[in-house]
Write a structure and sequence with these properties.
Layout (H helix, E strand, L loop, with lengths): L4 H4 L8 E4 L10 H4 L17 H25 L3 E3 L12 E5 L6 H9 L4 E5 L18 E3 L4 H16 L3 E4 L23 H6 L3 E9 L11 E10 L7 H20 L8 E4 L4
Parallel strand pairs: 1-9, 2-8, 3-6, 3-7, 4-5, 4-6
Antiparallel strand pairs: 7-8
Helix pairs in contact: 3-4
Length: about 280
């Protein structure tokens, strides 16, 4: 299946069908994934830069990134955001936002215009290899997962620090991008990604992207998008960490399923291989 072309131009209907064996199948792979090359982090990688000039560069770059995101999201995808006022209920605290994973370009910019503060997004180290944008991802908030014990520890410390700084942590619990998918898939890692909110006693929100017919035909049959924000969902101080993770994972999944029902246009079709 094509990669960037899927999201930059309309493609024929007969090419918009994906047959899958499992919801964990990956329709879009990088060259490294296709070659089964394991990508790690550069030696000495800094999750939180110490150099003040790098910090300033990052802050300025994020502002430019967010401004461009407003233009790209509202201009190209005709995005409308609903429920953003709910984020006010997390005033004075950091929070974690969980989103469905259906468009790699929108998934970079969408949370930036939906959130009411700076975002930091958990990404795979392979994303650092993406031509062009890969090198700037860390400066606009990308937090790549570590591989070694030291990297994992540094990663977790960075996540906790960003949340204590009252930022928004963005996570895509479906893990793999399914282009224009209108259903919410089960989370491959279960409730593991819900530990960040639980251990910091912070709320979570969901961001569900839905697809709809355009009123014009300037981009052929390409859909437009709506974003729905839901929450907050809080950990229960009376529950154990394991119970809270399970509870929040279920609430996030149920919320995204609820809003996914607002999809009104299926640009891509996903079918089990047994039905082919």
């Amino acid at each position: 299946m094509a990669k960037a072309e899927l999201f930059q131009k309309d493609i024929p209907a007969e090419e918009r069908v994906f047959y899958y064996e499992s919801e964990e199948d990956d329709p879009i792979k990088t060259d490294e994934q296709e070659a089964k090359v394991e990508v790690g982090l550069p030696e000495g990688y800094e999750f939180i830069p110490k150099n003040p000039f790098v910090k300033l560069y990052s802050a300025v770059l994020f502002r430019i990134f967010k401004l461009f995101g407003q233009y790209y999201e509202r201009g190209y995808w005709q995005v409308k955001v609903y429920g953003r006022e709910k984020l006010k209920k997390a005033h004075g605290k950091g929070y974690v936002m969980y989103a469905n994973h259906t468009n790699p370009f929108h998934d970079v910019f969408g949370p930036a215009i939906a959130a009411d503060r700076r975002i930091f997004t958990i990404i795979s180290p392979v994303n650092l290899k993406i031509p062009g944008i890969g090198k700037v991802l860390p400066y606009i908030g990308g937090l790549p997962l570590g591989k070694t014990r030291e990297e994992k520890e540094a990663f977790n410390n960075a996540v906790d620090k960003r949340l204590k700084q009252k930022n928004c942590l963005v996570i895509y619990p479906e893990a793999h991008v399914w282009p224009y998918a209108t259903k919410v898939r089960k989370f491959p890692a279960g409730d593991k990604s819900f530990k960040y909110a639980t251990r910091n006693n912070l709320p979570i929100f969901t961001m569900t992207t839905t697809y709809h017919k355009r009123k014009d035909n300037k981009r052929g049959e390409l859909p437009r998008m709506d974003i729905y924000i839901d929450g907050p969902f809080w950990p229960d101080e009376k529950k154990s960490e394991d119970d809270n993770r399970a509870m929040l994972a279920q609430k996030a999944y149920d919320s995204m399923v609820k809003y996914s029902k607002k999809n009104s246009y299926e640009y891509f079709q996903y079918r089990p291989k047994t039905s082919k």
